[in-house]
């Protein structure tokens, strides 16, 4: 496929001029909460509402549904749908274009801050293919131009859709009845002339066979340019959250030697003493605020009506994407190296004497030491994720008689994923290349095999290009995910009626099989990569057989104080069989999920709804199939570091018992840049999570106030036996502060560096944080949505809308031994993703004729650092212990110049509000980057976009 080329604009002048020509844009449907039409059967206006498979046009659900229209997404100027969804109050920021370190080349959605793995993503009511073994869908693979709307149900929905629907369901409804030709284009650029993005889309639709059939085809292209942290003043330098001093890495271009006391090489190869806290390496300019990506999508949707009672339908989706993340040059990162300091010609006499003084086993010509040398000569570490996914769906639907409707379908999908990790360093080759002797003709490797080139990494700028190429390591991993689903259901009226209207039911069955295979190259599998860590082969699959049913029964109608009263219920039984080839294990389990709800409308203007749902999430293929794998994680304090254990007999004994060498007690180094080594992976014997969801709400549609609707809903979601990865800091705190038993459950998870007792070093060092059924999660709050349309006569109309969430509780407990962390309104090292108590989006739109202009106001409530809130640290330990509330305003417009031509344009972040600067070690490295939270707050600044739609 030939890639399109675009002429980049490097100033905002041209955009401002274009904005003046096409200032108006399209107003979104401000009241985003409604019951939504999703699909229909032949020659019928029957509705399938997300949250139920019952097909009834009079159905009122007890679960709230939020609807995001196609026009709202287009109006935002977003390149992908995830950029818009992350701003709805029901969601928190997940992985996306503003995630760099921790981005796996995907875009995800996280409802209620319970994790992407607990949000089920559907396309037209059916599962979409995941991008890896975690079972999570990459939203980059869904074509925005073909999305008619997005329906979001928050809270458990496993009785209807099966596993994963714990925090809710995001259902993308695609256009399937388009006729004609439609071309769309969009371009955006920041005020500073960078952060460009482009999208192109072409949709064609054709009715045939006298209108009984339709085929709609769409092709799309999108590209987003990189934005480096060095391109913005607030992220140019890595800052420490404590004092905004240098907060970079101790792995420096000079080379930091950890021998109990600190030393650092200078340009002459001498060791500078007393460098316990050396000048830090500023890695920020190399890292990204916005990851570049490019994607192609192609989708075909078709249906054909054979008769009034039989219709065939199908969809084929294909998508390719490439996402590149870039982080600072690799280093040796305090891996344990052997050095022949007595005979090595690269070691100066001065440095040789210091090594000799530190050598506890003199006479063997060598010493093993932890070494942190930034290998800037190798260039940045780039991760290139190339994804190709396709899915085919086909089936038949129809009806028997007047009220029995049925559907059978089958679908198959695959994702092929190639991951390249470039410009790392090989531990084996680096070790070989620094064991150097002088053979009389100059420095040579002591082991000359594999054309070894001597590497002088002792001091800045000493590494030759040839030596750099010898120790350089490029890695690759290939993943393949497949999904097969077949199922069917029967829906209709019950044969009895309690009130005037008969009840409705649906019964169905599904079979699903998912396979995942991860194939890392030998260097990744063996842990030879210092900077990127390691990965392990995975070959796992599961299949599940399910039967389900739903019922909705009207109890009373058209009675005083009972305009309507109905109850609903649902149940699903699931039987799983897991097989992990790489571990040689298999197991099975079964579970039930169910729901019960009620809807009562005392008068036509007022409706109450309530529901209880038991939802489940079966462990995904990584959680059952990934072996223990060395990696890196987040921690801000090691209880055994420095002088902390001195004077505390219990802590001293525990540090020694858990691996701190006696000679290093009192001088153990702490985490570097908020990171330590860890071990990740799955556990074959984990079982499904279980959750309980309560929702209670009211819907207002007062007849005395035309064009006004409002909903208020209370939600409470709890997850028991949650499959969680315990944070590294929590393991350390549990071991040294609570458990205080070297053979206890938490202390036994800690493997220290045998050389110096640190939690940084080789692949044998780290904290075991593999996932286990040990956690408890809770999300509780109130959603409010309202819309009011005001007719101002010949002048036009004004539409006011608001979508608001008040988060009351976000509880996170990693084990019974550990405290419950109340994360609402907090962010930091435990509460990783910002979770403000208040968040809302308010829109004000004015329309006159073919012109519409809209002001969108997004509010993000204040956030307190969780270490301060939990009493682990004082407010004085941070420059910014509390992030104040933030408000962003976007001004967008739409103008239709003819029936076939529409222009859209807008200014995002209208007042050019900079993100809060908190420091790089304020929280987890995936969310906290560039001294801020670039996924939650806008790191780009004021930006402009212009788009056009041509229809024929």
TrEMBL record:
Residues 60-169 form the TonB-dependent receptor plug domain. Pfam families: Plug, TonB_dep_Rec_b-barrel. Residues 360-910 form the TonB-dependent receptor-like beta-barrel domain. Keywords: Cell outer membrane, Membrane, Receptor, Signal, TonB box, Transmembrane, Transmembrane beta strand, Transport. Its main location: membrane. Residues 622-641 are annotated as: Disordered. InterPro entries: Beta-barrel_TonB, Plug_dom, TonB-dep_rcpt-like. It is found in: Cell outer membrane. Residues 1-27 form the signal peptide. It is a multi-pass membrane protein. The keyword DNA-binding does not apply. It comes from the Bacteria. Belongs to the TonB-dependent receptor family. This is TonB-dependent receptor.
